[in-house]
Write a structure and sequence with these properties.
InterPro entries: HetReg/Transcr_Mod (IPR052895)
Organism: Bimuria novae-zelandiae CBS 107.79
Strand content: 5-15%
Radius of gyration: 22 Å
Number of helices: 12
Strand order of the largest sheet: 2-5-6-7-9
Oligomer: single chain
Pfam families: Het-6_barrel
Protein name: Heterokaryon incompatibility domain-containing protein
Helix content: 25-40%
């Protein structure tokens, strides 16, 4: 399996295979370390981002020991015994920027998902919180699944006038004019019934907003109805193995409401504590409940196929959810949960996905909100001109 990999790959595909083969996380990392040795600190931090430490800032300090060596003494750079947590995180972010590693993890920064230290610059990753790889992140995926929103332009970035600023080149593309917020506190530990209510109602609301604010057929993709554009947007138009997603997934999403409705009553009655991630055929077969097995298992087929996609507004796979949006030009997309109307969609040169920025009223100074999916521009269709500079603070 690993024969064709080279050190230049940084074994990112190993972690993709890990998801398929259910390889133990530590076993996978030890394998990477054994084959290629220490990796860049940004890579190590990204791999361990979802893990927790008893003392959160210690996660940064501890991981330095298994990263590759730099000319700079990283242990002294991130020594929280003599620095505040904020200083450690900012110094690390500047170090990553100077070593051309900051943009590999930019999707983990931004103010759009909440929980981070509000005193940090928006482009700085807060490693003290759990930093799950987002469904839009393509760093660990095969080339065929990666987006190319602005990769046709070279990345251009420089330090700003203070340590808290960086300047990046890009193109102001559009603005958000409508959002469908999540109406529940999603934690990833909801019961089956809770997830049913969330997913079902959210599908209805996204279609309603899209029909009010965009047009049918969808004007920004060839030969797509608005309904098709919506279901493709809700899953980032890809599966775990294909991009764009096969047309068959329209049928799966169309059945979602009915499938959950068929399952909700019997499962809630006989398995009241069952979590969404635990709903499998084996659960049903091993249950003692006297329920209509054929109907139940038929409904499960759609649910099983759903495991091959990321529903971007569902946090069940451990990442912060995205919410549905429409833009001034009639585009539809998925943006970070704490996005706001009037946030700007920007194509940062060299980046695989669009980003949301907030502000810009004073000298093009913006806060980074987070990464986004915008249906119809994920392969460079929106890029034009030389762009302009944006100061991220």
């Amino acid at each position: 399996m690993f024969a064709s990999l080279t050190p230049g790959d940084q074994l990112e595909n190993v972690f993709w295979y890990r998801g398929i083969l259910s390889m133990n996380f530590i076993v996978a990392y030890r394998l990477e370390y054994h084959i290629f040795g220490p990796q860049r600190i940004s890579h190590v931090l990204r791999i361990f981002g979802e893990r927790e430490a008893k003392l959160p800032i210690d996660k940064v300090f501890a991981l330095v020991g298994i990263a590759k060596r730099y000319d700079t003494d990283l242990k002294q750079l991130v020594d929280y015994r003599i620095k505040s947590d904020e200083t450690v995180l900012l110094d690390l972010a500047i170090f990553l920027f100077d070593h051309e590693e900051a943009f590999e993890i930019l999707y983990l920064a931004g103010i759009g998902r909440g929980g981070r230290n509000p005193n940090l610059p928006s482009w700085v990753v807060d490693w003290t919180m759990q930093c799950a790889n987002t469904p839009l992140n393509s760093e660990f995926l095969p080339e065929a699944l990666r987006y190319r929103a602005a990769t046709s332009k070279p990345l251009r970035a420089m330090r700003g006038t203070s340590q808290r600023e960086i300047i990046v080149r890009g193109q102001l593309f559009d603005k958000i004019t409508g959002l469908v917020p999540l109406h529940t506190n999603v934690t990833g530990r909801e019961s089956f019934t809770d997830i049913h209510l969330l997913l079902g109602s959210y599908l209805d609301e996204t279609l309603k907003l899209a029909r009010e604010k965009s047009r049918d057929p969808y004007p920004h993709a060839v030969n797509q109805s608005l309904d098709e554009a919506v279901w493709r947007t809700l899953i980032g138009d890809k599966t775990n193995t294909e991009r764009p997603a096969p047309a068959s997934y329209a049928h799966i999403l169309a059945r979602l409401n009915q499938g959950f409705a068929d399952l909700k009553d019997p499962l809630s009655r006989y398995f009241p504590e069952l979590r969404f991630s635990e709903v499998t055929k084996e659960n049903i077969r091993n249950g003692n409940a006297q329920i209509e097995m054929e109907k139940l298992l038929a409904s499960m087929e759609s649910i099983e196929q759903m495991q091959n996609i990321d529903i971007l507004f569902d946090s069940g796979k451990g990442s912060s959810p995205y919410v549905f949006c429409v833009t001034a030009q009639g585009f539809i997309g998925m943006v970070p949960q704490l996005s706001q109307v009037e946030d700007s969609i920007v194509l940062l040169h060299g980046m695989e996905v669009p980003y949301l920025l907030r502000g810009g009223d004073v000298k093009w100074r913006y806060q980074l909100v987070g990464d986004a999916y915008v249906h119809g521009i994920m392969d460079g269709e929106g890029v034009s001109g030389d762009g302009e500079d944006f100061t991220l603070v």
